[in-house]
Automatic annotation (TrEMBL):
This is Uncharacterized protein. It comes from the Bacteria.
Amino acid sequence: MTRKINRIAFWVLAIALVAGGAMFYFREGLFRGGNGYVPAQLRPFLQASRLELIALDPGALRPAQKQAGGNAEVQTPQPLCHGYPVLGAVTLASAADLEEIRAAIRDLDRSGRTWNGLIAGCFTPRHCIRLATSSGVSDLLICYECHGVKILEGSTADEQKVTGTIYMAGAAPAESGIVNAILTRHSIPLPKE
C-alpha cells in the first residue's frame, strides 16, 4: 500500500512540475524559439545622443520619518522607477559616457544572442537605461543578478509596457562594473549587491 501511495505522489509531483514548467515556458514567450526580444529594439539606445542612467534599490523600503509632535511615522516621498526606489540618476550626453553605456548595451545584446536557455527567477533590477524622445519613452530595466533585462516602451514612463525580454548567457561582473563605473564617476550611489 505504501509503495502505491509513493508512486501516486511521484506522478502527481511530476505532472505538477511539468505543468508549472510549461506555464512558465509559454508565459515568458520562450516557445518562440529563444529570447523574447528583437535586437532592433536596442538600436535607438545605440544611436541616441542622450540617455539617462538610473540606479535602483530593489530591496529598500521607503524611508519613514517621525511626524512633528507625534510618534506616527509617515512615508517620505521618493522617486520610483517601475516601482523601485531611485538612488540617483544621471543624464549621459558626453561622447565618453555614451560610448561606455553603448558598450554595455552591446554586451547585453551579445549575451542575449548567446543565451543558453537558463532562467533565474529573482528579477531585482538595480539599473535602468532610459531613452526619452518626442515619440515616447523606452527603458532597459536590468537585473545582472538573474541575467534578465526587460525592454519597456510607451508614450510616457507611466504608460510603459514590456515589449521584450533579454535573457543573458551569464552576466560577468564586468558588465555591471561598466554601468557602476559611470554611476560612481557622476557621484550617484551604487545599488547594493
